[in-house]
Design goal:
Elements: H1 9-12, H2 16-32, E1 41-44, H3 50-55, E2 62-66, H4 69-82, E3 87-91, E4 104-110, H5 119-129, E5 130-141, H6 161-170, E6 174-188, E7 191-203
Parallel strand pairs: 1-2, 1-4, 2-3, 4-5
Antiparallel strand pairs: 5-7, 6-7
Length: 205
């Protein structure tokens, strides 16, 4: 089965806005958390790894997970050409696949959560995979009217911050905090609109 992102993979890194977004989110994560080479991290919905490459110098081993073989193929090529030794890509869809609870100190996602139907389920999985004291960082859209993706999109129309924070709490996470870290400028309805992107940081007790 061809993933909808497989075709997008070859041109993904040619969009300067996606590069800027990843770098800005990486900087926000670094400003919020004390990263270090002792930390094992998981990026879920990694795409071509733009966010992880921005965080790579500040972390230990990074597991990069995605369900799109096209994205993973592009990522493998980037890892090979860069000579980076602390990044491992895997094909994974936590809605249907299981992953050993080996434990991560940090899990992060960028513009992934709104594509996942079962928000509560994936937050519980993120909680399960974190070590005690580990952090979850979610960068995603504020609630929007559906114009970001347009007609036919079946995912979430962004998230209400208070509601998402409560969902994180019910999943076992605590200290969820939010800040606006980026704005996506996108044409919608014949005009350019700004869509705020928040960063949620929560902790596993």
């Amino acid at each position: 089965m061809v993933n909808e992102f497989d075709e997008k993979a070859k041109d993904w890194d040619s969009d300067p806005n996606k590069i800027s977004r990843a770098r800005t989110v990486a900087e926000a994560i670094r400003n919020r958390l004390a990263l270090g080479p002792h930390m094992e991290a998981l990026e879920y919905g990694c795409g071509t790894g733009l966010l992880s490459f921005a965080l790579q110098p500040y972390l230990g081993h990074i597991t990069l997970a995605d369900s799109s073989e096209g994205m993973l193929a592009a990522l493998r090529g980037k890892i090979a050409s860069s000579g980076v030794g602390n990044m491992t890509p895997i094909k994974l869809d936590l809605s249907v696949d299981s992953m050993p609870g080996q434990g991560f100190d940090l899990t992060y996602t960028l513009m992934t959560l709104h594509h996942i139907p079962n928000t509560d389920g994936i937050l519980r999985e993120f909680h399960r995979l974190l070590r005690p004291g580990g952090h979850l960082c979610v960068a995603d859209l504020d609630t929007e009217d559906g114009s970001f993706h347009g007609a036919g999109f079946t995912g979430h129309r962004g998230f209400d911050r208070g509601e998402l924070g409560e969902r994180a709490r019910r999943a076992g996470l605590e200290e969820a905090s939010f800040e606006t870290v980026f704005r996506v400028a996108k044409e919608a309805g014949g005009s350019t609109r700004d869509y705020p992107v928040f960063l949620m940081v929560a902790r596993k007790p």
